[in-house]
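Weekly puzzle thread! Below is a chain. First person to post its structure in token form gets bragging rights.
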Amino acid sequence: MESLELRAGQAPPPVLPSKTLFTPWANDLQQFFEQFKCASPLFPRFKAGAICVSNNATFFDALRILIYNRLLSAPVLDATSNAIIGMFSMRAVLNLIVNNFTEAQLSTMKEANFEAALNERALGTKKLSELQNLGNLDPVYLVSTDDSLRRALEIMVQTKTHRVVVVDEKEVPLALVTQSRLVALLGTMMDRIPSADKTIEELRLGFKKVFYVPQDVTTLTAFRYMKDQDVNGIAVVDKESGKLVGNLSIHDLKLLGYSYDYWSLLALPVMDYLQKVPEVAESLNLRTHFKSLTETVVVRPSDTFSAVISKLYMYRIHRVYIVDEKSMPIGVISLHDVLLHIWELFFSEAAQ
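Winning reply:
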């Protein structure tokens, strides 16, 4: 496996348990997924009094909860049953922003006129129950404390969701099983993956259409394109050469959750946005949470599957681009692609 180093300012990957924890499954990754429970303390748990949002809350109140608590998403609970019914996220916010604002309006956006603009469009007073009916809440997928990781993996593969929520018998949320954490766990058990040393070219992994935008389009236009293509990330390429120069991800919206003022960044050309976000983050003492967005992590067709997993885990990213000898993007491998490969390797009909 190739040696990987953290970039300057890069947050370290999450600390994972010792490999000895997985000794019972030393030679059998399939058995690990079938027997290890979703209720394991390995997965992020909701703290007591976790921040949730009622479906009776308005869009404006829910947005304030995200921004003032510095969150990307929050569970939405039914006001009557208290059961989790969806996730209110910055992606839902973005969908409403791109459908209701122009670059010119966003370029001068401040908190006061942002709130006025929301209310003028009747967005501020819409309840989350209405947004749910309009399809603007993220779907939520539940597993029980008795479910195995195989069940969580199956849901992720079938639905392409990034997370499943572990609930108790009353459907009260307890924990999250995420794509990122599963891929990180795979990184501790690489020797149990039969295809770990095969190249991505041999596996034909990730060789698919790459959605991209030129570096001079506005960030709002790029996010609109991302929404229209129903993807969570797009490549940014040089307008003249077509070479890969950056990556824009739905997760790059984190900074927008810290203040209304930063919505104005969406009016910038996308390359300026990718360069500006780390600068602003540093001014807020958040530099370690925002790696350089113009340093895109790539692999080549000759790299191994284990190298892909290592880069996804080490850099805490959701995709790596496959580039040719001219740095042209020829494919992309996402967390979902990795988990789909594991599913097909161990649990598909062909594997049985």
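Puzzle host: Confirmed. Bonus trivia for everyone else. Residues 270-283 form the longest helix (14 residues).
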